[in-house]
Amino acid sequence: MKLYEHEAKKIFQKGNIPVPMGILCSTEKEVWEGFKIVDKGRGVVLKSQVLVGGRGKCGGIKTATSMEKAIEEYQKLIGQDIKGLSVSSILLEENVDIQEEYYVGITIDSSASRPIGLISSRGGIEVE
To answer: By the 8 A CB rule, do 64 and 86 touch?
Structure first.
């Protein structure tokens, strides 16, 4: 099963795991309204919602410190092709000061027919 980032974060919230405030947006109006809610003075992060890794390296994650810049970045992201998938929505999140970053992943080893977990204190996209 693959999950969009916004779907995974809802599951985390149900398990009382803290996540940045975010709103799923599919229109400019939703970005405009969402910016007013999500921005806490540090700007926002716009994250393309596609079911592939490496979105940042493909230009699928942008930051904005103003509402106008958020709309501009949204226009660049929406409809963009990332690894063969078209962006139809973005996750608009508060920009947070990252102190530490970890990577946690679970996948299925099809040859062994069992799940494999990976946890790394190095975090980031290089682990993928």
So the answer is: no
